[in-house]
Specification:
Length: about 550
């Protein structure tokens, strides 16, 4: 009988940052390690990584990080983790290519790293535990589900999946493998839950194809299509339709270019070399406005919208959107980019281009819908279900689906990051907030240098600005030399607030007098009193709290 524990460092009650840990008799198996992108309230933060530092102490017990597919919310924390601890990483060929590209970009040497490429037929043994894989269908090639076989049963992590029937081998679900696992007594199903509130809508694929063909047929000039760079299935679909209409294809977007290059080189994306065109910078002779060009504007999150805005404002170096162009929007806004998407639409309509927004229902998300989630549960027949990958409402939606097909409420565990689910043969229970979880905010290159205090300061700077008080003090004569200078940034307009700033100067003189009259000047207490009293005064006068910075310089003449 094993003792099995499961907990999440990220991915529960949120969209992104997926990182799950299964512990079997002290051996740690990590499932995915992704990032999350910040909302607008996190000023200057580029990405958010799960706080994996608690694992560093236990690094000798980590058997490996097992990656399900190549999306950033599942793999982009890998470079940060491998900097701190050299643990084995297992991934399919395409996922590993993207990981290697990320490591190269971060200047991490791969010589000593333990990177293992797997296929769905790989079996990896760790004592009495073995790990196997099964192919799933997602929007990126070579996605796999991960199964951890223990003496008490199998723990299955589906990651993101759909049962969309694809003709392409790289995207096909292996039902035979799923059935084989089902026969081995599935103890726990860690299923994605993002699509649990979506109903299955048949015929979407053919409706979308018909709509795109109709847009292509009626387009008079260039066609510009926005796509997420990680959605290789949709990129392939647009490429196929473009080729059928004898168009030339240009791919725009730096990061996309890298993913697409890897996909073309490895045979995961099929674009004939003769159909690809490289656009040259716009100048007097070259306008890149041939009618047979299809430009794929690709990127992550907000990037396609940002690039479209530049193209409309004639600020882009490759494409200037005009009335003869047709723009097809196939990037529904992801959480946090809704404002930018709405603003982009406004800018687009001003450009007089033909704007075609593809209905969100036709751009079926690459996440299992309600019926598909029920089907996965019915195929595997797990004893327990743990909803993962999704906000709480999605997790709750999956619990409701499980109850609909006959599960008891106590066999479906709704958990938060940091909760620990323990199974010790006799009992199965959840300990709330058992593990201290947090987030590492990445700002530029340094890891973990941005904490809550820094974010609070940035929020204050954004809302109320800053006020600097600069003064020279002679420590011998204990006098203020010259004039006291006040510098404000983002707080008040100096010329209209002279009276207020003069009152601040007077208050500074008053506080200074008290400190300069004492036998010894305690510079720290002096600065602290200046900061506190002036903050208090400004808040009384203006109801604002700028960051106040006293710059007191000791000057001897």
């Amino acid at each position: 009988m094993s003792q099995i524990r499961f907990f999440a460092l990220g991915g529960l009650g949120e969209n992104g940052k997926n990182m799950y840990v299964v512990e079997v008799d002290q051996q740690l198996f990590i499932l995915d390690a992704g990032i999350k992108y910040p909302g607008q309230e996190l000023y200057g933060v580029d990405e958010i990584v799960p706080d994996y530092r608690m694992l560093i102490r236990a690094k000798d017990r980590i058997k490996g990080i097992f990656l399900s597919h190549a999306h950033e919310d599942h793999i982009a924390a890998i470079p940060h983790i491998l900097r701190d601890m050299n643990v084995p990483v297992y991934a399919s060929n395409f996922t590993m290519q993207i990981v290697l590209d990320m490591l190269k970009e971060e200047d991490i040497s791969i010589d000593k790293l333990k990177l293992h490429t797997i296929t769905q037929n790989s079996i990896i043994k760790f004592g009495n535990v073995k790990v196997t894989f099964f192919n799933t269908t997602h929007s990126i090639p070579e996605s796999v589900g991960i199964a951890i076989h223990t003496v008490d049963g199998v723990i299955v992590y589906t990651s993101d999946f759909t049962f969309d029937q694809s003709s392409d081998l790289m995207y096909q679900t292996d039902f035979r493998k799923i059935n084989e696992i089902a026969e081995k007594n599935v103890l726990m199903l860690l299923s994605e839950s993002l699509g649990s509130t979506l109903e299955l809508n048949g015929g979407v694929s053919s409706t979308l194809k018909h709509k795109l063909n109709s847009i292509y047929t009626n387009a008079e000039g260039r066609i510009i299509v926005t796509l997420f760079s990680s959605d290789l299935r949709k990129i392939q679909r647009i490429v196929d339709i473009s080729l059928a209409h004898h168009k030339k294809i240009a791919i725009i977007g730096r990061r996309a270019q890298r993913i697409v290059d890897i996909a073309i080189q490895s045979g995961y994306l099929n674009i004939p070399q003769e159909s690809l065109v490289s656009l040259r910078f716009i100048d007097d002779k070259n306008k890149n406005d041939d009618k047979d060009i299809v430009a794929l504007v690709t990127g992550n999150r907000h990037e396609p919208f940002y690039m479209l805005q530049r193209m409309c404002k004639k600020a882009d170096r490759l494409i200037h959107i005009g009335p003869e162009d047709t723009v097809i929007l196939m990037t529904p806004p992801v959480p946090g980019t809704e404002k930018m998407a709405a603003r982009t639409l406004d800018v687009l309509f001003r450009s007089d281009a033909q704007v075609k927004q593809i209905d969100k229902r036709l751009l079926t998300s690459a996440h299992a819908t309600a019926d598909e989630l029920k089907m996965m549960m019915n195929l595997l027949k797990p004893r327990y279900v743990v909803p993962t990958i999704g906000e709480y409402r999605h997790q709750y939606g999956l619990k409701r689906l499980a109850l609909e097909i006959g599960y008891k409420s106590e066999d479906v565990f709704l958990m938060d990051n940091g909760d620990v689910l323990t199974f010790d043969g006799k009992d199965t229970y959840v300990s709330k907030n058992d593990i201290n979880v947090g987030e590492i905010l990445i700002d530029g290159t340094a890891v973990g240098d941005v904490n809550d205090f820094v974010m609070k300061d940035r929020e204050l700077l954004a809302e109320d600005g800053a006020l600097l008080i600069v003064s020279h003090i002679n420590p011998k004569t204990k006098q203020i030399l010259g004039d006291v200078k006040i510098v404000t940034k983002g707080f008040v307009y100096v010329q209209e607030s002279e009276e207020l700033l003069n009152q601040v100067k007077e208050l500074f003189q008053k506080i200074s007098k008290k400190h300069l009259e004492s036998k010894y000047i305690n510079w720290n207490d002096y600065k602290r009193d200046v900061r506190n009293e002036i903050n208090h005064f400004i808040y009384q006068q203006t109801r604002r709290s700028p960051i106040t910075i006293p710059v007191i310089i000791s000057t001897e003449i």
